[in-house]
Amino acid sequence: MFRLTHALMLVALVPTLAVAVGVSIVNAQTPPQYGAPISIDDAKKAAAAAIAEARTHGFLMAVAIADPSGALVYFEKMDHTQRGSIAVAIGKARTSALFKRPTKAFQDNIAAGGEGLRTLAVDGVVPIEGGLPLFVNGKVVGAIGVSGGTPAQDGQCAKPGADVLATR
Q: Is the overall model pTM greater than 0.85, yes or no?
């Protein structure tokens, strides 16, 4: 039976596991801190900016916004977007929120091979470009995850969503 003590041990183990698989929790600078969870209004603004970028280029995208704990706050899917992109967008947002970094960092880690392949062992990580942390006043308030095109197209659409809040 899974007990609370097991859950607490897992929470304590995540930073150690992440370092062991080559995912640095801290960098040379002070890592960003978490802020108050993103509001629904800000989540809608971020998603709207991502959708606008997708429309500009004729992409069909699913957009997910997660709070700092990785919980879904807002989701929007453009008509005719492939259904598989729903789970991928949510996974990208969750990954980016929990690890306070773009999902492309994980993609690049794996592409480098060698020790970077250990990233595949981190449970729940979606190592595909298109997930970005959302910052307000320099603090992570959540993350955006976009899916529906190539990884580069997903990242291209996620960026305006992240930039909408970063200007504050």
A: no
